[in-house]
Amino acid sequence: MLIELEKRKEPSQAMLYLTPVIAVLATMFVGGILFSLIGHNGFAAVREIFITPLIDTHKWQDLGIKAAPLILIAVGLSIGFRANVWNIGAEGQYIVGGLAGTGIALLTWELEGWWILPLMCIAGVIGGGLYASIPAFLKTKLNVNEILSSLMLTYAAIQLLYYLMRGPWKDPEGFNFPQTRLFNDSQILPEIIPGTIVHLGVPLAFLIAIIAWFVMSKSIFGFQIRVVGSAPAAARYGGFSAKRTIWAAMLIGGGFAGLAGIFEAAGPFQQMVPQFPTGYGFTAIIVAFLGRLHPIGIILGGLVLAVSYVGGEIAQTSLGLPNAAAGIFQAMMLFFLLATDILVKYRLKLNLAKQAGDAS
Amino acid sequence: MSDTIIISIIMTVIGASTPILLAALGELVVEKSGVLNLGIEGMMLIGAVVGFAVTLTTGFHLLGIVIAMFASTLSAMLFAYLTLTLTANQVATGLALTIFGIGISSLMGEPYVGKTIEIFSSWFPASLAEHPQLRVIFGYSPLVYVSLALTFGVSYFLKKTRAGLILRAVGESDISAHSIGYSVIGVRYAAVAFGGAMAGLAGCYFSLVLTPLWSEELTAGRGWIALALVVFAAWKPSRLLLGAYLFGAIMTLELHAKAAGFSFIAPELLAAMPYLATIVVLALISLRKSSGLAAPACLAKPFKPST
Fold first, then answer.
1. For residue range B282-298, what is the model confidence (pLDDT) as tens digits?
2. A359 in any annotated domain
3. What's the whole-number mean pLDDT along residues A197-203?
């Protein structure tokens, strides 16, 4: 073979950060070809999905709105992933967090005051955290696989949402539509840039990601998480409790997802509706990987995925592509990232000498 | 209740159960080999759209099914290459495969929305297939009988054959299987391919038998129910069959509850039941670890041979 893989002595730092960029570029290239093969204009699809959201300044606010929940959820999940805790039920924790905050909003709908919104956010964190504590409990007490339990709970949460919308929480003045009443002015996140849709949750999500970066890189807790994930035996000798780490990872992942949920409900939606789950909890897993489980990388990864979401909406109207088409690109980004991961640990070597030797 | 109502209920339940049984049979073999493929829903959708498109174009159901199974197996091979050859994370890759499958099936299926094909119905003569009573035995699509045969086939394969033993060994202890000379990666490739083909077959059941048409996200999350079913059945094919019909009955009841609007049980609770029951089963399995019902020991763990 002409090209050989040679194991590097140490993982390449350059490749670690370069491969996500390669993955995005490869996705644009191969994705364009794929769309053309199916009979669409692949070039136009790539342009509308990846380029238009960046050059159309009117779309920048949408990027912030979409990136915020992805970043928030992905930062929470990445802490768990580093500790080898595979919470993939963030979508469910996002829903339950949104529901918990909505519960406070419905209890206080006739009241006003500055305290209502923080209370809703706290409820969101607690709701998401509590929902994540079910797989945490099952994992630590009974050694139940958290991948399966957290995933199953997501689909139960969706049904809980449908039930509340159809029944107890339905707006009594809402012409029988399955949705809650609109939140009042004390219950919605204020817009921070006048005249746009950018709400307070957007800068907060970025701020929380940066705080998480400091905590993960500078604190004992961050060290513990990394050791438990990468060297469980060493962690045991060091006296780090695996169970406590699982609990911490699950509660942080669930709490962040819950906060993203109530930000979404009190921000863009301003009420609770059955269309609330939009798959952010799953897309955030792609974001976490694309960002190399690093909070700063996740901010960039969240923005890239936000571009694909916004671009997908643009392509829907301008090219008539189905809504799910952006998902093809999102999935391909992860495929290419995982495929190019091999470059981090191995180097490609052109083996010309051997070829010549074989020939002689 | 009259005979006809009971018969039509049985037939509806079996109809609703068959696709999840087919997909779950594939996933069971995949998981038994130590691999967790969360891409079932995506592979099912690819199978559903390809099966529909080919059948619509050629008029041959069987051709549609074969090409659909080929297409979904191809997508499973993408998963296998990333997770087995490149040892990528199985959870992330599987979820991405589902997102990919939803997207590409919507895109490919666009020209076919609103078109219909002839249903892939029973091959028995009408005197049996449409007989008021006997149709409960003879009145199903050939895929229903295939699903039953495959259940026994998979059960026999895992329990009685040497190849099945090797597959289980690979799933329970990849290092031991490797050290006595079995190709762990090869076995897992074969298992993932089977899982892909079965998901494609399950997808075809939606687009050629149940509906028969194509619309975006036709499988409506049934891939996740199939995943739950494998766990619910504690990785045993015989329980898979019972579990599939139980889940099918719950799903049928849910649809009727929604349509009839009766109030003694919320349809949402019925819809959540398979998932909640699966979590309970997971907990029960863990409580009784000795009973041989536990998950394959190597599930979702990548295998990197040291040599």
1. 888 888 765 566 788 88
2. no
3. 92
Cβ-based neighbour number of residue A247 at 10 Å? 18
Which residues, in sequence order, are bridge partners of residue A123?
none
Tell me whether residue A190 is exposed, middle or buried, using C-beta atoms within 10 angstroms of its C-beta: 0 to 12, 13 to 18, 19 or more: exposed
Confidence (pLDDT) at B50: 97
The 10s digit of each residue's pLDDT in A138-170 is 999 998 889 999 999 999 999 999 999 988 999
Tokens of A329: 């690109």
B224: nearest CA in chain A? A152
The ipTM is: 0.90
Number of domains in chain A: 1
Alpha helices in A143-241 (DSSP H): 146-166, 201-218, 220-230, 232-237
Report DSSP state, residue A178: S
Write down all domains in chain B, each with its CATH number in brackets: 3-291 (1.10.3470)
The whole domain housing A101 covers: 3-354
Cβ–Cβ < 8 Å for A263, A119: no
Which of B269, B275, B295 has its CB closest to that of A145?
Answer: B295
Tell me what the pLDDT averaged over chain A comes to. 90
Find, among A28, A57, A61, the residue nearest to A45 by Cα: A28
Query: For residue B90, what are its two tokens?
Result: 């199985």
Question: Distance (Å, rounded) from C-alpha A129 to C-alpha A262?
Answer: 13
Q: How far apart are the first and last CA of chain A?
A: 16
| Closest CA relative to residue B136, chosen from B13, B269, B20, B246 | B13
- Model confidence pLDDT, tens digit, residues A83-139: 999 999 999 999 999 999 999 999 999 899 999 999 999 999 999 999 999 999 999
Q: In a 3-state reduction of DSSP, which class is residue A233? A: helix
Nearest CB among A152, A322, A341 relative to B107 is that of A322
Instruction: Report the mean per-residue pLDDT for chain B.
Output: 91
In a domain, A360, yes or no: no
CATH number at residue A80: 1.10.3470
Mean pLDDT of A243-258: 95
Give the pLDDT confidence score for residue A357 in this predicted structure.
45
In a domain, A127, yes or no: yes
Residues of A in contact with B38 (CB under 8 A): 88, 151
Cβ(A71)–Cβ(A110) below 8 Å: no
Q: What is the pLDDT of residue B236?
A: 92
Q: How confident is the model at residue A351 (pLDDT cuts 50, 70, 90)?
A: low
CA dist., res. A161 & res. A334, Å (int): 30
Contact partners, residue B77, CB within 8 Å, separation at least 6: B189, B192, B193, B196
Residues in chain B closer than 8 A to A334 (CB atoms): 92-93, 96
Lowest mean pLDDT among A45-59, B13-27, B64-78, B253-267: B253-267
Size of interface A-B (CB pairs under 8 A): 139
SS3 A339: helix
CB contact under 8 A, B99 and A342: no
The 10s digit of each residue's pLDDT in B223-257 is: 999 999 999 999 999 999 999 999 999 988 887 77
As a whole number of angstroms, the distance between CA A181 and CA B85 comes to 52
